[in-house]
Write a structure and sequence with these properties.
Elements (H helix, E strand, L loop, with lengths): L8 H4 L12 E7 L4 H14 L4 E7 L4 H7 L5 E4 L2 E5 L4 H9 L1
Parallel strand pairs: 1-2
Antiparallel strand pairs: 1-3, 3-4
Amino acid sequence: MNSYFLFSCHEACPQRYNRGVQEPRQVVVYSRKGCHLCEVVKESLSKLSRRGGFIWQEVDVDSDNQLRHQFNDEVPVVFIDGRKAFKYRMDEQEFLRKLAS
């Protein structure tokens, strides 16, 4: 299984970490190459990420047999802080609402 890591500045740069500032939300999109719906969701996430408040990453379900089995017919799937938020399509306004909650 492929592993992926998110860098957190407060671990590497404790002198710069401000405990009063909320950590950005973690967003993961499970997708695959050649998936039009995946491209649309990734485009939206790229655009919305310019506003801040979250960090997102893509995981290719075809890079791991377990992920392929789990998400094969559901891509793209978007998780916010480890909770499934969207499958197939993602409404930007609904995403922002979920991100704020």
